[in-house]
Specification:
DNA-binding, about 20% strand, alpha+beta, single chain
Length: about 425
DNA sequence: TCTGGGGTCCTAGGACCC
DNA sequence: TCTGGGGTCCTAGGACCC
């Protein structure tokens, strides 16, 4: 038995938590660069603001509806997320952190002591009491069914945020209400194809012949169908699997047309990616860089990418910057208005040791590890920052966050104050 | 004028080998 | 002039997730 616990409108709720006077008003959170909407509270959803809607389209509605928007404040969300996950983890023997605002719990056997539905409400109450945030809980036989239950807990307010189903007839009834594109694992594309085939509800999908699914789709959807039937195919992942890839990419706040600026941006992303790599305690041997124009603009379009294989695995920022810069040199094409660039690290190993070929003389840099340790330590502390020359200083394309809330929980100088009357 | 970022898994097809 | 069959590995691209 699985329980899925998911925070309601997580980012928006975090903001309201520290600005309680906003309760009842439509509140949303914007993506990096204040580009588009990525979180909405109930009130904002009601107005008809859709997920992913660009900021400039919402702007004209702000006054009329009293909408309040925030730039995303990941330091705040990550901190509150950790608190929620800790509480959820304490509620079951085994748990899996699934995303910043969701956890799976293994709740097998819990019902010997507490009926599942009551247990779901206990989870909700505890998270509410300790963090002020509201979670929705779905409990059922498989992860996919638990997701469906959790969907129902949000779609039907009468459930008061908890849906726990073990009985087959009741599960079938729930599935008959759920549109196929709301199922976990069915996205827009496959949802559309299923609809065209006349499969509209989760129940209809569950009752579709497995052979038909395998012939027309692939094993992933087959697994989803089996899970909807109550057959467990996906289990709880208790140990966080090591990453296979690290990406660092950003849209520019202003278009980049100049090679020098692009090199600086890529250098900055390379630096950040290398930090993440060291945090993962990994070394990488493949580095790729990409840059592209805005697909929404009427400009000439370009999407360039290239990569470099290293002979020795590295986690040294200098190696990663050098490789990234050489890729930029190779792929750069002038004459485009670039909107975004990024770097991707691949081909990881837990040590620097790699198979050297007979004539290799690429000895690793001496003192590399010690230097990187010092750099990371300085940059994680509050003393100040060190950076690599290629990053440049304060650039015009740097991310824009004009509606950022204070770091209430992670900086002493941003602690909220209470007035005693 | 202005449209996010970071991941995973699977498959098809090409390169290459014998 | 005629040019097989089977396997592996890698990559690009598509689909999904949050």
């Amino acid at each position: 038995m699985f329980a899925l616990c998911d925070c309601n409108s997580f980012y928006a709720s975090c903001e309201i938590l520290f600005a309680p006077h906003l309760r009842g008003r439509p509140v949303g959170v914007l993506s990096n660069n204040d580009g588009c909407i990525i979180a909405r509270n109930q009130e904002l959803k009601k107005i008809g603001i859709k997920m992913g809607m660009p900021y400039f389209q919402i702007k004209p509605l702000i006054k009329q509806h009293g909408i309040v928007l925030f730039s995303s404040n990941y330091a705040l969300y990550a901190d509150l997320s950790a608190r929620v996950h800790t509480i959820l983890d304490s509620m079951a023997l085994n748990s899996e952190v699934y995303s910043i605002d969701e956890s799976w719990l293994d709740v097998t056997g819990i019902d010997v002591i507490t009926p599942f539905e009551e247990y779901g409400h206990q989870i909700r109450d505890k998270v509410k009491k300790h963090t002020g945030l509201t979670v929705g809980v779905g409990i059922s036989k498989t992860k996919t069914l638990a997701k469906s239950c959790q969907w129902a807990s949000k779609a039907y307010p009468a459930t008061r945020g908890v849906v726990a189903l073990t009985d087959d007839a009741r599960i079938r009834k729930l599935l008959s209400f759920q549109p196929v594109e709301e199922i976990w694992g069915v996205g827009r594309r496959i949802g559309k194809r299923l609809n065209l085939m006349g499969i509209k509800t989760a129940l209809e999908l569950a009752d579709t012949d497995i052979r038909f699914i395998r012939k027309n789709f692939h094993v992933v959807l087959e697994r989803t169908v089996r899970e909807l039937r109550g057959e467990k195919c996906i289990s709880l992942e208790e140990n966080v699997p090591t990453k296979q890839q690290i990406i660092c990419s950003r849209s520019f706040s202003q278009r980049v047309t100049d090679e020098q600026a692009m090199r600086q941006a890529v250098c900055q992303y390379a630096t950040r990616a290398a930090e993440k790599l060291r945090l993962e305690k990994q070394f990488c041997r493949h580095i790729s860089v990409f840059m592209r124009t805005s697909p929404f603009a009427n400009d000439p379009q370009a999407s360039l990418s290239g990569s470099q294989q290293l002979i020795t695995a590295t986690q040294d920022t200098r190696d990663i910057i050098a490789a990234a810069q050489s890729v930029v040199d190779r792929i750069w094409q002038p004459g485009f208005r670039y909107a975004k660039a990024g770097i991707m690290l691949n081909d990881f190993s837990p040590t620097r040791v790699a198979q050297l070929s007979l004539f290799d003389d690429h000895a690793p840099r001496p003192g590399s590890e010690a230097l990187m340790k010092v750099v990371d330590k300085i940059n994680q502390g509050s003393l100040g920052k060190v950076w690599f020359a290629g990053q440049g200083i304060e650039q015009s394309w740097q991310m824009k966050r004009e509606m950022l809330s204070p770091a209430y929980t992670t900086r002493w100088d941003a602690l909220p104050r209470a007035k005693i009357m």
